[in-house]
Write a structure and sequence with these properties.
The protein is of the alpha+beta class. 23% of the residues lie in helices and 46% in strands. The chain is built from 3 helices and 7 strands. Strands 1, 2, 3, 4, 5, 6 and 7 form a 7-stranded mixed beta sheet that branches.
């Protein structure tokens, strides 16, 4: 299937990593299904700004993308998050499914693990990471 969005390009780029694929298979979602089996990853765009100068739009955008790494336990969630970090941090001058990447860098991480049911010791383990991606606005 042809990639038609940057989100698809980002998903394909993550899935092309052997470590990520071994941890989550193909379970990378925009919104995870209700009963998705962990581990899995969700990805979503948080914000976008254009790169302009006095001549106008330069065809470059900078976006903040959020990944959430869910695991069957904390070690598993941390392993998935580490694999995502290793795949995305400090990538420069690459092409992902036709989009030119000028810079992709890690920005922030939070442990958002929580009880599965209020008062329960059973946990949903979730590591949230933000990445800033400066890229071409369209496929090149």
């Amino acid at each position: 299937m042809a990639v038609t969005t940057f989100q698809g390009a980002l998903r394909n780029y993550l899935l092309a990593d052997a470590t990520i694929a071994s941890l989550v298979g193909v379970k990378i979602y925009k919104t995870a299904p209700q009963n998705a089996v962990r581990p899995y990853i969700t990805i979503g765009k948080i914000s976008k700004v254009t790169i302009d100068n006095l001549s106008g739009f330069l065809g470059v955008v900078e976006e903040r993308w959020q990944t959430d790494s869910y695991g069957s336990n904390l070690d598993n969630a941390e392993a998935v998050a580490k694999a995502v970090f290793n795949r995305l941090h400090c990538k420069i001058y690459e092409t992902w499914s036709g989009y030119k990447i000028y810079l992709c860098k890690f920005d922030n991480e939070n442990d958002l693990s929580e009880s599965e049911i209020e008062g329960s010791e059973k946990m949903i383990h979730r590591i949230q990471q933000d990445f800033m991606i400066k890229r071409s606005s369209e496929k090149i």
